[in-house]
Design goal:
Elements lengths: L1 H20 L5 H14 L9 H16 L6 H26 L7 H8 L4 H10 L4 H22 L17 H18 L7 H15 L9 H18 L2 H6 L1 H30 L3 H8 L4 H11 L3 H23 L4
Length: 331
């Protein structure tokens, strides 16, 4: 078992390095996704563990903390109307597409809305919906987004700003990493969303507000983070799981494709023009993928991590606040 797990990890590293050598966007994440998917085809290979994903999310959150500046709160306030518009459009599109899934209304709605996979799956279990359908559809959407966004948007591999600036603090980075691991141990028990990504970012924001800028995550961490996230995501692509839910998988893939095109090709250019923002960063911000995956994509492509994180976090929070209110009155 250990040998097969090691082989899967080596495949992810090898594929990621191969794609990075030819400057493919999101090379390490896509390569690891392919390696994880191959590993998942081994008959005795277990599904991805939460620890792999959490470690990747923690590194991504710390990397995002290093990109925060004292101007971040003002930027969020200025962009709030556009962010709300993007969140509303994504949720409306998801509700309309839910009709294609051909499952009960609650399951279809939770599967189609662009919120966190873990949060929507847990909510499905609480509401008596089909959690396995919700998980499969969200998983397929994240995979589609990670693969399609670099093709739909000009995301060339960017140069990561990993040099240690004179005014930045390595100790602050260690606080974000350490605290970002400890805080979620309790936060995840009270419904805190994406705690392993958000906690280090909150700590980083507090440190920056106190005049202590966080040092950038070293290059090794920027490579390891998408590797871990991509590998764990690939491990979820088990053929036996997809075979048990063929209709949901096909409907989910179709819905996800349309939603991705609507947000990335339709909404992103309009929002970027209205706000005077970089189109690539806005595309990653409004793309219906996972928070950790999209921030990792931003770091890999040199896009504004702060902007992507702001869009993704606001949508995730608002969706998870609104969805129970929409579903419960009709149950």
């Amino acid at each position: 078992m250990a040998a097969r797990q090691l082989l899967g990890a080596l495949l992810s590293v090898a594929f990621g390095a191969a794609l990075a050598s030819v400057e493919v966007p999101l090379a390490w994440m896509l390569g690891a996704l392919a390696g994880g998917a191959m590993a998942a085809s081994f008959s005795t290979m277990p599904p991805g563990t939460r620890g792999i994903r959490r470690a990747g999310q923690l590194l991504i959150g710390a990397a995002a903390a290093g990109a925060l500046t004292p101007d971040t709160p003002q930027q969020i306030t200025a962009m709030l109307p556009l962010m709300r518009a993007a969140e509303l459009l994504a949720n409306m599109s998801g509700i309309l597409l839910a009709r294609l899934a051909r499952v009960d209304r609650t399951t279809a709605l939770l599967a189609s809305l662009p919120a966190g996979m873990a949060e929507m799956t847990l909510l499905a279990k609480d509401l008596g919906a089909r959690g396995e359908v919700v998980a499969v559809v969200h998983m397929l959407r994240v995979v589609q987004v990670v693969v399609l966004v670099p093709l739909l948007v000009n995301l060339a591999p960017g140069e990561s700003l990993t040099e240690i600036r004179a005014e930045s603090s390595i100790a602050a980075l260690l606080v974000c990493l350490g605290g970002g691991w400890l805080v979620p141990q309790g936060a995840s028990q009270v419904g805190f969303l994406n705690p392993y990504v958000v906690a280090p970012m909150i700590l980083g924001a507090l440190l920056v507000a106190w005049g202590i800028p966080v040092a950038p995550l070293p290059t090794a961490g920027l490579v390891l983070a998408p590797l871990l996230i991509g590998h764990e995501l690939g491990l979820r692509l088990r053929a036996d799981l997809l075979a048990r839910l063929p209709r949901a998988a096909l409907a989910g893939a179709a819905c996800s494709l349309v939603l991705t095109l609507v947000m990335v090709q339709g909404a992103a250019p309009a929002i970027a023009a209205l706000g005077g923002l970089a189109p690539g960063a806005v595309a990653l911000g409004v793309a219906p993928g996972g928070l950790g995956e999209m921030i990792a994509a931003a770091k890999s492509s040199g896009a504004s991590v702060g902007l992507v994180a702001e869009f993704q976090i606001l949508r995730s929070v608002l969706t998870n606040m609104v969805v129970p209110q929409v579903i419960l009155p009709r149950r």
